[in-house]
What we know:
Elements: H1 2-12, H2 21-60, E1 66-70, E2 75-81, E3 85-91, E4 94-99, E5 103-109
Amino acid sequence: MNEFMFALAEATAGAEVPEGGGIMAILSQLLFFVPVIVLMYFLIIRPESKRKKQAQKLRDELVVGDEVTMTSGIIGKVVQIKDDCVVVETGEKTRITFVKGAISTRKEKISN
């Protein structure tokens, strides 16, 4: 350990420390992190907010008769829409109530 400390002290003995290094160090770190944050925004945050807006639009435009696929994979026809719930008919007289957030895709109204 003493040999390492001695070698470290010897190696850094001739190193020059620039004047005002504190401000320059902070600026150089900021110049590195700002593009990283901007990149994260465009790769992660922005696409996620777009997906949330599309999903909300899908749920808002939902009407009785639409064929929907739930996140669980259940496919059915919307027969009733409540405030935050949807009643879906999956077969003959088989009705299941889901929250609107469980809807993943929607087809337009099925013509009878």
